[in-house]
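request received
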Amino acid sequence: MNSGPLLLAWRHLTHRPGRSSLLVLCLALAALLPLAVEALMARFGEQLVARADATPLLAGAPGSRFDLTLNGLYFRGRVPRALPVGEIDRLVEDGLCLPIPILARDTAEGLPLVGTSNDYFRFRGLRPAVGGLPVQLGECVLGAEAARRTRLGVGDELLTDHESLYRIEAGYPLWMQVVGVLAPSGTADDATVFASLETVWISEGLGHGHSAAAEQDESAVIRADENGVVLDSSVFEFQRITPDNVDSFHFHDDVDALPVTAVVVVPRDAASATILKGRYRVRDTAQLLEPRAVIDEILGLVFQLKRFFDAHVLLVGLSTLCLFGLVVALSIRVRQREFETLARLGVARSRILQTLGLEYGIIVVAGLVLAALGAWTVVVVFENLLGWMG
Amino acid sequence: MAEGPDDSPGGGVRICELSFARAAHDRGGESFRLTVDELAVEPGRAVACIGPSGCGKTTLLHLVAGILAPDRGSVRVDGVELVGMPAALRRRFRLRRVGLVFQEFELLEYLSVAENVLLPWSMGRGVDPAAKERLGELAEATGIAPLLRRRPRRLSQGERQRVAICRALITAPKVLLADEPTGNLDPRTGGRVLDLLLEQAAARGAALLMVTHDHGLLGRFDAVVDLGAVAGAEARR
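response:
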C-alpha cells in the first residue's frame, strides 16, 4: 500500500491536534456509555449466572424468592422471615441432600457477617490462604477482599456492627478473632466475614455469656425459681469469647427455633433434587427454589429495561453520526482548495478519498479505543465498588 | 508569435486545431470559447504566454495539463495525445510527466517542505530512494536544502515559490507549465524565481510554457505567444 495517503492523513490530524482530539473525545464520549453498559451487563450477568449455577437449590422461609436468592447467594438484603434451624434436620433426615445453613443479617466492619458451617467452605471450594477455618466459638475467617478492606489478618480482632443504638434487646457487639484469610475466589465470598452459626447468633444477641448467677450480687437477681435465674441489666456480658469464658455462653431459646436466613441445599443427585422440590411444593412454612431460575427471571427483567436504553442509544448514535457527517462535510468544504490542488497536480481521486477515509478512520478508531478503555475502567471501578457482585 | 511545428512529435507541447468552449452556466453567466490553430513548445525551450485577462491563458495551460479536455483538436504533450484519453489516465500522466507551478504556490501547510516537494511521488507511485536522492539534488540546486524540515508558513514568498518549483521538477518532467509563478512576488524575487525556473527547465531539457502578465520578463524567454493575437478567444455574456 502507498503510504502517501496515510502520511497526509496523519500530518493533517497532528497539524490541528485540538480539533482532532476534540473529535476523538466526542466520539469516545458518545460510545462510552453504551459500551460500558454492555460490558457491565455482560460481566455481571455472567457472574450472576455462574454463582446461581454453582448453587443447586436454596431453601428459606416463605416470601420473596428474589430476596431469598440475593441473601442466600450474595448475603445482601434482608429476608422478611427467617427459617428455624430445625428445618435442616428435616432436610437431612432421609439423606437426600447436604444442607448448609446461611445466616446473613448482620455486618462486621461494614462487611456481611455470615454464619454457616464448615461444609460451606468445602462446597464452594474455599480454602484459607493464611491460617485456618473457624473451629471455636468467637472465631472468624475473612474473605480475601474483606481482609484487604479491613487490613486485618490472622490473630487480629474484628468487632461486629451494632445495627441500632436503640435496639436494646440486641446483644452487645462481639469481638471475633480472625483465624484465617481465604484465598480469592472472584465471588461474593471474597468480601464476606464468615463465622460459625453459633457465633453469629451470639453477635445477634440470641445467646450470651456472663459470670455464673451464683457469683452475682444478690441485688442483681430479679427472680430465681425452678425455671431458672433472671438477672438484671447490671450483669456484665462478655464481649469477647475466650477459653476462660467460652463455657458460660448459652442460648435461652429453643436451639431448633434459632434462625437461619437461607439453606444451601446440595442434593445427592438429580432424583433427590426432584423429590425435594416435590416435597417443598406442598409446604407453606418453607420454600425451596432453584437460584438459576430466579436469576434468569431477574436478568430477563433487566434486559427488558435495557431495550429502552438500547433504543435511546440508537437515537444518540444516529444523531452522533449525523453530527460527525456534518463535521466531515464542513471539513471537506474548508479543504476544497487543497483537494483541488491535489487534483490539478494529478493525484487520483481515489487517493484523495483514501486520504480522507484514513484521516476520519483514525479518528473513529481512536474514539472507539478510548471508549473501550473507558468502558473497561468503568467495569473495574464498578467491580471494586460492588465487590459483592464479584 | 508561436513556435513552429515540431518535426519530432516525441517531445514538448504540440497543439493543433484546438477548440474549447464553456457554456454560460459553467462560468457564472458568461460563455467562453478558445480556439488555437497551432502552437508548439520544443523540448528545452521556454515560451511565455501573454494576453489580456479572460483571453484563456490559464484555460490553455489547463488544456495542455489535461485538467480540461478540449471539444476537438489535438494536444500532444511529451509525445502523448491527451485528447480522447480518460480523465483518470490524464491525471496519472500529469502527475508523472508534467510539472505544474501555480501563482499561489499551493503548498500544503501541514506538510514539511520535503514532504511538499515529494508530494507527486508520495501520492503517486510512492517515494523511493531515487526520489529522495532527487529531492536532495533539487534542494541543493534551488537553495532550499536548509529549509527541508520547515513548514511552509515559516517560509518567505520567494522560498515558497522555490519549493513549488522543486515540487514541479521532482518527477523530472519533460514539460513544465507555470501559471503566473511570479505574480505574487516582488519584482526582484520574481526575477530570481524566473531565473531558477528557466535554469532548471533548460538543465533538464524540459519544455516550459509560462503564463505571465509581467512584460518586463518576456526578454528572457525563447518565444512569446500573445494569446489575444494568435488565438481566437472570446467571452460573451
